[in-house]
Amino acid sequence: MRESFSDRFRGDVELSGLPDHALLGIINIPGSVAASPWALIGRRLFYALALTFAITLLVYFDKGAYTEDLTFIDALYYSAVSLSTTGYGDITPVTQQARLINILIVTPARIAFLILLVGTTLSVLTENSRKTLQIQRWRKTVRNHTIVIGYGTKGRSAVDALRADGTPASHIVVIDTDKHALQRAEQRGLVTVYGSGTKGDVLKIAGVARARSVVVAPSSDDTAVLVTLSVREMAPKAMIVASVRESENQHLLEQSGADSVVISSETAGRLLGLATVTPTVVEMMEDLLSPDEGFAVAERSVGEDEVGANPRHLADIVLGVVRSGELYRIDSPEAETVEPGDRLLYIRRTTGERPEKVRD
Questions:
Q1: How far apart are CA 30 and CA 129, in angstroms?
Q2: Which pLDDT band, with edges at 50, 70 and 90, does 235 fall under?
Q3: Contacts of 50 (CB under 8 A, 6+ apart)
Q4: Confidence at residue 358, expressed as pLDDT on a 0 to 100 scale
Q5: Strands (E), the chain
Q6: Nearest to 211 by CA among 276, 148, 258
Q7: Among 12, 49, 117, 260, which residue has the least CB neighbours within 10 Å?
Q8: Which whole number is the average pLDDT over 293-318?
Q9: Residues 318-339, mean pLDDT to the nearest whole number
Q10: pLDDT over 80 (residue 74)
Q11: 123-137 burial, b if ≥16 CB within 10 A, otherwise e?
C-alpha cells in the first residue's frame, strides 16, 4: 500500500496511539501550578521533623512516667521509634497519665506521621490522575479551535491578534519543539503540544482534523511547506494561514494548500522603506496592526439596515466587502452595494469596544 505523506514524517513512537496518561509530558493544559515533588518532599519532611520534636518535648517533660528516667536523647529516640511504628519496646510508659497521653496524643501523631511519609507519593499520583483525566476530556471535546504551529515572534503576534479579536485562550493550541516557548504559552492560558508540526501524530493529538484554522509560523520556509502539506492532508476544510520569509516560496505554500500566505521579509522591508519617506504612515500601519490599542482592521456581519446601502456611506470606515469567501476592495464594482450575507472589512476602534467574534 502506498505510504501517505504524513506517515513519512512520523517518529518511532505513534503519539496518537498512546494512552492519555502517556501524554502528560506532551500535552499541557493550563491550570493551577502544582508544586514540584521535591518541594512536596521538603515541606512534608519539615512537618515530620516538627511533629517528632513536639512529641519529644511532650515525653521529656513527663520523663519520670516511663520505665527509666529519660534524657532528652532518650525522649527523641522514643519519639522516633514510636512515630515510625518501629516500637522496640525498651522504653514504655508505666503511669496512667503517660499511657493516656500516648493514647490521645502520640497515637494520632503516629498516624499523622505515616500520612506525611506517603503524602508526597499520593499527591503526585493524584496530580497525574487529574491531568490525565483533563487531557482525556480535552481530546474528546476540542473542536473549532485554532492551532498555532511555532511560538516564536510570529506565533506570539498571531496569538495576540487572536486574543484581541475575542478568541478565548482555551480555543488556541500551540505546537512547538521549544519547551521554554511552550512554558510561556502555557502561562498565557494556552493549551500546548510538544512536538514537530511536520509529524502527523503530533497534529492528530492537537485535534487538527477538527480545527477551524491553523497558523503556520515556523522559523524556516522549508518547514512551513512541510507543515502546510501535512495539515492540508489531515484537515481538508481547515483555514490555513502560513508565514514565509522569502516571496519566491509563496507559490510553494499556496500549492501545498495554504489559503493565505504572509511574506514577512517583504512586509518588513516595505515598512522600512516607508519609514524613511513617510514615518507617520508607518506609525498608522503599526497602529492598525496592533490589536490592543488605537485602531485595528476587523470583520463584522452586515446589519439589516445596511443591506442595499453603499459601503462608503456607512458609519464605519469600510475597506472591503467579503462575499462568498471572496474579498472585494471598496473601489471595486462588486462592492458598490451591500448584499445580505456580506461581511464588512472595516477599521474599528479598539479602546473600549468589545470585538465581535468572527464566524466559525
A1: 15
A2: very high
A3: none
A4: 40
A5: 27-28, 146-149, 172-176, 191-194, 213-216, 239-244, 260-263, 295-301, 317-323, 326-329, 343-349
A6: 148
A7: 12
A8: 85
A9: 88
A10: yes
A11: beeebeeebbebbee
Output the nine-digit C-alpha cell for 328. 472585494
CA-angle at 292, arms to 186 and 171, nearest 5°:
40
**Cβ pair 186, 28 in contact under 8 A:** yes
Instruction: Tell me which amino acid residue 3 is.
Output: E
The answer to whether 144 and 210 are in contact (CB under 8 A) is yes
Residue 141's φ and ψ, nearest 5 degrees, are -105, -15
Q: Which domains does the chain have, with CATH numbers?
A: 37-139 (1.10.287.70), 142-265 (3.40.50.720), 293-349 (3.30.70.1450)
Cβ 249 vs Cβ 225: under 8 Å = yes
| Residue 60: exposure state from Cβ atoms within 10 A (0-12, 13-18, ≥19) | middle
Reading phi first (left if > 0) and then psi (alpha if -120 to 50, else beta), residue 257 is in left
pLDDT at 202 over 60: yes
Find, among 213, 156, 202, the residue nearest to 360 by Cα.
Answer: 213
> Read out DSSP for 285-344?
HHHHH-TTSSEEEEEEEPPGGGTTS-GGGSSSEEEEEEETTEEEETTSGGGSS--TT-EE
Q: What's the pLDDT score for residue 18?
A: 64
- 10 pLDDT exceeds 50? no
Spatial separation of the C-alpha atoms in residues 97 and 103, rounded to whole Å:
10
Average pLDDT of the residues of the chain: 80
Written as nine digits, the cell of 249 is 516560496
Grid cell for residue 320? 472591503
Q: Measured between alpha carbons, how far is 298 from 139 in angstroms, rounded to an integer? A: 31
pLDDT bucket at 289, cuts 50 / 70 / 90: low
Does pLDDT of 12 surpass 60? no
